[in-house]
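Let us walk through a complete example step by step. Step one is to write down the protein sequence. Step two is to encode the small molecule, GLP, as a SMILES string so that its atoms and bonds are unambiguous. Step three, shown after the inputs, is the structure prediction itself.
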Amino acid sequence: MKIIVEKTYERMCRMAANILSAQIILKADSVLGLATGSTPCGIYKQLIDWYNKGDVDFSKVRTVNLDEYVGLAPEHDQSYRYYMDQNLFDHVNIDKANTHVPNGLAKDAQAECLRYDKLIQSLGGTDVQLLGIGLNGHIGFNEPSDVFDTGTHCVDLTESTIEANSRFFEREEDVPRQAITMGIKTIMQAKKIVLAINGEKKREIAKNALYGPVTPLCPASVLQLHPDVTVVLDEAAAGLLG
Ligand SMILES: N[C@@H]1[C@@H](O)[C@H](O)[C@@H](COP(=O)(O)O)O[C@@H]1O
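Step three: the predicted structure of the complex.
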């Protein structure tokens, strides 16, 4: 595990964006695994900036997103498809047909999960997977549990995640209770992983995930076992790493 600490959130984002853009430069049709949440916003902003300066070309890039809420249409302003369009895809020269997010409206969620895993395989697997981390150690929407979940699957969100994500919704009742997420196996199959962690609130979980025991009670801890992980943190999140 490579751990890089940057002074500010902006510097952290620049570092993560550097890894993603280097990947695209080295392999124009890279498959990027992308994440949502507040953490990656600045990373996408940086990529858009470099695109506008002509430094990075998305025309052949393919993307697979980690997760999507069950029951939200792509045009719902809190769906992860909407987030990706707003925060990245609408601002760069990516072909939208090459961007993939699980379908939160699928009638048969099970079939959708299988379709999504097959899709990732058919693209040749993920070259770089960008991850954020939830306050309880979740990655994607893999919540703490007794076992590491395998492929893409449907999950019941925990109360703490619903509460954390309620900041994006008008009322807590509006937060979906379920999501479709890549599983730990899907995530671990990525050739390279970049985990971004910022803010004082994530201090404790950063320490547990990076230096604590590998356990499904802290899903991000499994990343300690991946051969090519880079963790980028701002100083606020790195405060307990020693
Ligand atoms: N499903 C997403 C995760 O992919 C994300 O990493 C996490 C942390 O979000 P934030 O970056 O806003 O703290 O929240 C959500 O639940």
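Step four is interpretation. The helical segments are 9-26, 41-52, 80-87, 109-122, 159-165, 184-188, 203-211.
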